[in-house]
Amino acid sequence: MREALAAIKKTAAYSHLLFCFGLATLIFSAEEPPLVWQKLYDSGFHDVAIGLDSDNSGNVYLTGQTGNDFNWDCLVIKYDYLGQTKWVKKYDTGRNELGYAVVADNQEHVYIAGQIFNGANWDFLILKYNSSGDLIWAKTYDWGGTDGAYAIGVDNADNVYVFGQAVIPGLGLNYLTLGLDSQGNKRWQSIYPKGNPAFDSYGLAIDGQVDHGADVYVCGYSGTDILVIKYEASGTKQWAKTYDLGSLEFAQGMTIDSEHNFYLTGMFYNSAAAKWNAFLMKGDGNGIATWITKVDSHHNETGFDVALDSKGAIYVSGTANNGVDDDMLLIKFDPQGKSLWRITYDTGSQNRGFGLTLDPLFNVFVTGYCLRRDYDCLTLLYKQIPISIEKRPVDRR
Ligand SMILES: [Ca+2]
Ligand SMILES: [Ca+2]
Ligand SMILES: [Ca+2]
Ligand SMILES: [Ca+2]
């Protein structure tokens, strides 16, 4: 997110802070998974990982941003399940390019949503790579003002869906959902008023288990409430609904289960604690809220991404403040939204947790960044206790 870049600029002066690994804190005692590996990426400049996804072979893909104030590039890294680097790609046209979200398909193709500066303003940037890391196509879309693509999904017919914001002439700032064909060409676009422009809040999930091909869910906020919009793959809007937790809320990450329910995470303003805290919400395919869990904390916490395992357990990644600085946060919930365990990962400096994905064995991967000499990407693998895999949920964000 852009807040990551803002954080870099704010705190880059603290580059001499000491660094050490392994201070994972286990707050709930039952069934926390062991940390198997942690992987750093440092180009020598700032490196921030935001989006994360995995494929059916257990490879993991991250995207984010690498560079400095003179030249940012869109970063894409592929790791295998052992944490070995398969390839690293920087997309650089000589201007600034930023990656925010990634999705992989069953052919190990990988799609990136981000932003590119055109010399006058920012545009949507959408990239497709093959399994070897060769760029298949790159597309930009420009509505004339500040435009950015922050979430992405792909359906079983290789159609690509992107969610972001665009400044539309005559209409101002809007959420913009884009349906693309397998070559990245525009099939349809749909706008929805974004309201307050101050906050970045974007999620997208594909339900591929419907008769008409796919449904596309996007989430964000509207006014002071959570916003969810459901489209068919053709671009026909089925519904748009808002949900109120009683204060100001933003949805940041989304996934769908095999029964067409959606799961959202994000943050809400906890007025009793005067802090931002994380929430988790379940809704059905008609947009009816099933339950909402608020994760109250006396420190600031945010939920950023969400994923499911075959037992219906729900995992949320994000960032938790420890009273001194921020740590990566991972929480597991049961299918009713009850918290089972919670892990924070602290390198002793500033950390942020963003993307989350589960591999075919439901091992849990979280990515984000840590501060050492400068900012570096940090990806963690927590090994799942073996469970049946006959019913893998749809998780194609
Ligand atoms: Ca670095
Ligand atoms: Ca660049
Ligand atoms: Ca633009
Ligand atoms: Ca920390």
Spell out which ligands are present. Answer: calcium ion
Q: How many individual helices?
A: 1
Give the CA-based shape: globular
Compressed to H and E, one letter per element, the order equals HEEEEEEEEEEEEEEEEEEEEEEEEEEEEE
Q: What's the CATH class of the domain at 2-14 and 31-204 and 234-243 and 305-382, please?
A: Mainly Beta
Strand runs, count: 29
Query: Biggest sheet: strands, sense, closure?
Result: 5 strands, antiparallel
CATH topology of the domain at 2-14 and 31-204 and 234-243 and 305-382: Methylamine Dehydrogenase, Chain H
Work out the radius of gyration. 19 Å
Task: Tell me the strand percentage band.
Answer: over 45%
| Helix share bin | under 10%
**Broad structural category:** mainly beta
**How far is it from the N-terminal to the C-terminal residue, by CA?**
16 Å
- Write down the overall mean pLDDT: 89
Could you say what the CATH architecture of the domain at 2-14 and 31-204 and 234-243 and 305-382 is? Answer: 7 Propeller
Order of strands in the sheet with most strands = 1-26-25-24-23
Low-confidence stretches: 1-29, 387-397
Q: How is this fold's topology laid out?
A:
Elements: H1 2-11, E1 25-26, E2 35-41, E3 46-54, E4 60-68, E5 71-79, E6 85-91, E7 97-104, E8 110-117, E9 122-129, E10 135-141, E11 148-154, E12 160-168, E13 172-180, E14 186-193, E15 203-207, E16 215-222, E17 225-232, E18 237-243, E19 249-256, E20 262-270, E21 275-283, E22 289-295, E23 301-308, E24 314-321, E25 326-333, E26 339-345, E27 351-358, E28 364-371, E29 375-382
Antiparallel strand pairs: 1-26, 2-29, 3-4, 4-5, 5-6, 7-8, 8-9, 9-10, 11-12, 12-13, 13-14, 15-16, 16-17, 17-18, 19-20, 20-21, 21-22, 23-24, 24-25, 25-26, 27-28, 28-29
Bound molecules: calcium ion (4 copies).
One calcium ion binds at residues 42-43, 45-47, 374-376.
